[in-house]
Amino acid sequence: MTRRKLVAGNWKMHGLAADLREIEAIAAAAAQNPEVDVAMCVPAILIERAVRAVPRFAIGAQDVHHAEKGAHTGCTSAAMLVDAGARLTIVGHSERREGQRESDDEVRAKATAGLAAGLDVILCVGESLPVREAGDAVATVAAQLDASLPANSERLAIAYEPIWAIGTGKVPTVDDIAAMHSALRSRLVAAFGASGQAVRILYGGSVKGSNADEIFAVADVDGALVGGASLAAADFIPIIEAAARG
Ligand code: PGA
Asked: What is the rounded average pLDDT of the residues 31-45?
């Protein structure tokens, strides 16, 4: 099955109003590469301004609370993200699983809430270095996926992000990426039947213009989730162009 590639940026806790000019340049490049889906997940406080700056471009959030509303100080609901103009959200990023102690159950609830509100959801999974070194990466990440999956696969994408590859410049071998993505594809088909074939599986972790072609050539790699190289248009646009080639 042919799946359109998705290149999504994740600004993490970076970005002020002045940085919106980077998104304007990225949106212009995205418009020139219509065969690729491109999105940028910005800090919640920037979503509305980013949407105003580039109304035709997909702006997303980096997290969402699982509840519709209520006494959750400091949190943002899916309806609030939609109201601000967001089209997607990341859930279960390892920096939240670790830093905010988010469990698989919590991630599943967040994914469910995002999809129910009409957002596209990028659900992240990935192993730590000790797990990789012990040879348990595929089994561990497959189990993490099973435990985090929402009931519905429509508008869902998965991002495989080895924790040890995030922001480190280290990238798994193409064989290791292929083995993991193939295992995740099998789990998606086990969970969703034929619809599991339509779910995009992104790779994330130190993706750059210089390695994007090689990564996008791997079977079952349907795009990328990009942190550091998404902050500047000059770094991100070559990744969009690589996806358009691949
Ligand atoms: P990186 O981050 O591209 O800076 O490695 C990826 C991510 O955390 O999504």
From this structure: 98
